[in-house]
Amino acid sequence: MVQNMTSWDLVYYILRANVDYVESAYCKVPQRRTDEAEVRHLHGHKVTGIEKRGEKVSVAYTTTDNIEGTMEADLVVGADGPSSTVRSLLQPDVQRTYAGYVALRGTVRENDVTPKTLEAFKDRFTFFHARGIQILAYLIPGENGTLEPGQRLVNFVYYTNIPSESLDEPSKELAELMTDVDGVRHRITMPPGKTNPKVWEKQRVIASEKLPPQFAEIVRATKKPFVQVVTDVISPKNEFVDGKVILLGDALAGFRPHTVASTSQAAFDAMILSDMLSGKVHRTEWKKQTLGYARTIQSRGVDMGNRSQHQDLPLEQHIHDRNLASKPREEEIWPHWAIVDVV
């Protein structure tokens, strides 16, 4: 099937251009309409409390400058990600749990890889599976959203198992991977460029040993890798405070990356919420569809992750049997089972 790829930075600036007219090199800013509401982004504000106050909801916050304040709203939408602060205030028992593996991520400019490697990923969505490993790669827009050949980026997501009982008491291996160059340990995400070079060198060596050469090349070549701990989280409900506080997107259900559906969930939740508020969809139907989407895809992601990371895949067994029979050289094996062209 056709795969249309993009990048988060391009999506972000297109949204900001159309929502609150932020200028950037990514796209032109449309002309402001006279009949639209004002949109304001208040950065550096952390929600610390939510309570009903008459017909409104009072939201308490603290800024990065340690200034405390409150604001009132008719409706509060918690769209603050899988580690949602809004959700934690309303449902402190709903926590993210470790799935047993991490996603190593990075990009490499296509001009910086060998022609043979670029051929494996150009115009393809390419996968490789092995025991406890899944890696995939594809091209995305380059700097400022450019689609110029040579300037685009090869983006990879590399899932690898790292045993640990929990996030709160991580294993030595997980704690080492999530401790940055400054000695600060991160719980869920290691920001790009903060990975300890000595720790990443171990991953580069492992990539050379366990991955096909095309994948090993891009993992070894990335200059600003980052790490995402794969977790599960889902809220049993999506509305609180007599329906005046609503959870949306990842704050409602954090999907595993295999589903490629987190953005779709956020868009779906936003559109059907708009339809409900405008009277096009009954509140009961809105709730049914929103929770149904969250539960279905969240469960599907768990199944996909378990199959990918903790089961022997039929393809792997088939190739293993074939290799035992013929015992070809390594360079003859990779092209037959590392490249999957679906475009």
Automatic annotation (TrEMBL):
<dbReference type="InterPro" id="IPR036188">
    <property type="entry name" value="FAD/NAD-bd_sf"/>
</dbReference>
<dbReference type="InterPro" id="IPR053212">
    <property type="entry name" value="DHP_3-monooxygenase"/>
</dbReference>
<protein>
    <recommendedName>
        <fullName>2,6-dihydroxypyridine 3-monooxygenase substrate binding domain-containing protein</fullName>
    </recommendedName>
</protein>
<feature type="domain" description="2,6-dihydroxypyridine 3-monooxygenase substrate binding">
    <location>
        <begin position="98"/>
        <end position="232"/>
    </location>
</feature>
<dbReference type="Pfam" id="PF22607">
    <property type="entry name" value="FAD_binding-like"/>
</dbReference>
<dbReference type="InterPro" id="IPR054707">
    <property type="entry name" value="DhpH_subs-bd"/>
</dbReference>
